[in-house]
Design goal:
There is one protein chain. The chain has about 400 residues and is of the alpha+beta class. Helix content is about 35%, strand content about 25%. The strands form five sheets. Strands 8, 9, 10, 11, 12 and 13 form a six-stranded antiparallel sheet that branches. A four-stranded antiparallel sheet has the order 1-7-2-4, with helices on one face. Helix 2 crosses helix 3 and helix 5 crosses helix 6 (about 180-200). It comes from Enterovirga rhinocerotis. Keywords: ATP-binding, Ligase, Magnesium, Metal-binding, Nucleotide-binding, Tricarboxylic acid cycle.
Length: about 400
């Protein structure tokens, strides 16, 4: 789960991480009060969307002006003008794609006198099974581009969970960023607080870009992006309350209600599979035969007929889906339950595209009997290779 910048900064502030003062607004008429509360004389008006590259982004609407999604205001009137132009308009960035995202929230923040900009992030490193930090002197830039063009400017290290952050970790960051004296001490303090926040809130990724040095010698998180482990959200009702569903795919929201692992993709073959590994293999073999999957969908090992029906409805709601592949290997998940769910779903929502079903494992014969006796126009498959070839052929046939 992702949250907005202003929400991320509020979370970090709880752990003592230095951030600028700011006020979130939702309506243009709230801009003046926010600007007066902060006092000025410099304000930064920031679009709040779940995507990076806001500063270099452009609004689709001419009325929004040409200054991008992050703007510097030197008067209260300018803050008001920017709020009027930006709220409700669609911002297109390198991460949103051409469709862009509508700006429904703004964060008005105190301006900062910046001397230097750095990059600092923490993430779960699956190779080491630890939390790793990534630091760079190239703050404010696309870190992927830095990694590609000048990898020597990136330093990374992992934290042993048995010890947590140690003094040498702070020294590593300070050395990588060229910080000495009091700034080196501040760097160590920030790393310790970020690690504490990361662990306490079950984060997946925490990015500060840029981390700045102000002209009066203070380190400060000027931007913040946080994503959380969705599987741990039951422990964090305060974080769940920050969820902005307008930033999420409607199908993914529906899937979360059925406790389905669903990710929307841009292909044409809808997939319903049990088990993440099998789902990935299914996506791969669809690509092997020249088509693209429309989604990743894992119904899990304990799916009920209701859950399967919900999954099928989500797949068919995608207008890009030209065919559906159901691939079930029954272990804990029983093939007859899947079959009953598919039949119930098709009868409920109809079937307008080709459907291929491959069943194997527990209660497979009963599952096949349910499908074959349903009277539905379903193509059976013997194995995954056969299923992939059949669904690709069916959608190409039209």
């Amino acid at each position: 789960m992702n949250i907005h910048e202003y929400q991320a900064k509020a979370v970090l502030k709880e752990f003592g991480v230095p951030v600028s003062r700011g006020v979130a607004i939702f309506k243009p008429e709230e801009a003046e009060a926010a600007a007066k509360e902060l006092g000025g004389p410099l304000w930064v008006v920031k679009s709040q969307i779940h995507a990076g590259g806001r500063g270099k982004g452009k609004f689709k609407e001419a009325a929004a002006g040409e200054k991008g999604g992050v703007r510097l205001a030197k008067s209260i009137d300018e803050v008001k003008d920017f709020a009027q132009q930006m709220l409700g308009n669609t911002l297109v960035t390198i991460q949103t794609g051409e469709a862009g995202k509508q700006v429904n929230r703004l964060y008005i923040e105190d301006g900062s006198d910046i001397e230097k900009e750095f990059y600092l992030s923490a993430l779960v490193d699956r190779e080491t099974s630890r939390i790793s930090f990534v630091v760079s002197t190239e703050g404010g830039m696309d870190i992927e581009a830095v990694a590609h063009d000048t990898p020597e400017k990136i330093k990374s290290f992992s934290i042993d969970p048995a010890t947590g952050v140690m003094p040498h970790h702070g020294r590593t960051v300070a050395e990588a960023l060229g910080l000495t004296g009091d700034l080196a001490k501040q760097a160590g303090d920030i790393v310790s607080k970020l690690y504490a926040a990361f662990v306490a809130k079950d984060m997946e990724m925490l990015e500060i870009n840029p981390l700045i040095v102000t002209t009066d010698g203070q380190l400060r998180a000027l931007d913040a992006k946080i994503s959380f482990d969705s599987n741990a959200l039951y422990r964090h009702k305060d974080i769940v309350a920050l969820r902005d569903t307008t930033e999420e795919d409607e199908k993914e929201i529906a899937a979360s209600k059925y406790d389905l692992a669903y990710i929307a993709l841009d292909g044409t073959i809808g997939c319903m599979v049990n088990g993440a590994g099998l789902a990935m293999a299914t996506l791969d073999i669809i690509k092997l035969y020249g088509e693209s999957p429309a989604n990743f969908l894992d119904v899990g090992g304990g799916a009920t007929e209701e859950k399967v029906t919900g999954a099928f409805k989500i797949i068919t709601a995608d207008p890009n889906v030209k065919g559906i592949l159901v691939n079930i290997f029954g272990g804990i998940m029983k093939c007859d339950v899947i079959a009953s769910g598919v039949v119930a779903a098709v009868k409920a929502v109809g079937l307008q595209v080709p459907l291929v079903v491959r069943l194997e494992g527990t209660n497979v014969e009963e599952g096949k009997r349910i499908i074959s006796s349903s009277g539905l126009n379903v193509l059976p498959a013997d194995d995954l290779d056969d299923a992939a070839q059949k669904i690709v052929a069916a959608i190409r046939k039209g």
